[in-house]
Design a protein that fits this description.
- It is a single chain.
- Strands 1-7-6-5-4-3-2 form a seven-stranded parallel β-sheet.
- It has one domain (7-299): TIM Barrel.
- It is built from twelve helices and seven strands.
- It has helices at residues 24-36, 56-70, 85-98, 115-126, 139-142, 148-157, 172-181, 195-201, 215-229, 235-249, 257-267, 284-299; strands at 7-10, 79-80, 103-105, 133-137, 161-166, 186-189, 205-208.
- It is α/β, with parallel strands linked by helices.
- Strand 5, helix 7 (172-181) and strand 6 (186-189) form a beta-alpha-beta unit.
Length: 307
Amino acid sequence: MNVSWKGVIPAISTRFNSDYSVDYDFVAEHAKWQVEAGCAGIVPLGSLGEGATLSFDEKVKIVETLINAVGDKVPVIPGIASLSTAEAVRLAQAVEKAGASGLMVLPPYVYSTDWREMKAHVAAVIGATNLPVMLYNNPPAYTTDFLPEQMLELAGEFANFVAVKESSADVRRVSAIRAILGDRLNILVGVDDAIVEGIMAGANGWIAGLVNAFPHESVELFNQAIAVREGSGDKASLEKLYYWFLPLLRMDNGAKFVQYIKFAQETVGKGSARVRPPRLELAGDELTRTQETLAHALANRPLVAAR
């Protein structure tokens, strides 16, 4: 299936059973709900999917599960990350064989160094398959910062490098990438509370987090922002929805963003707060603040669509 690299594409979470095994049935049903709400694809195995705690075989089975569930409707674009380049290459090839439509390529876990070594890693993965690739740039989480000039270098060498998930939290990067690469790369925002600003700067896609709990609101927010950018939308309506959503979207930040988002899913009845160690579920003041934020949001929830 072709990937447009546009619209709202959930970085889908991974639900675990009480013994911390993967709940594959829920993963499938959750993806169907996201697609029914208007999402344009599914990205499993990313940071929010707790990819670092998943085994190789679990990753492949999750991809197979999602392809069986929604692969005839939207593209499945797995995150590819590992401690070693060899395993990242092997995973990329395995999910291509399983039927993935594209890849989201991350820098290696733990090790971050200069461009020569980081380029060698991502180039090995990009060159290992024929699938279209989205590079994931998230310097706050992975230390590695892929600069626009470096993306240009990769784009000149790999025709299948076609998109970037920009999660630097600096929307100026969207403009910088466009200034250097024009329309060569599709730009997708990867930080929830920068989505409207990112769209106004020229991004056309959103790899989203809170969409796992609020898919209808996420799709509506995205569509309204695109409409305003193109001159056909209502700015006041967009601001009203965005300002309601912002306290929730800010949960997509910090070391415990997985816990926040999975707790939000549990709160709305669409998931479990359970996380794999070393993560632990929210407790104490963090839990109380999160409960209060969600309670306020739900009490003032806008009428967007059937949920």
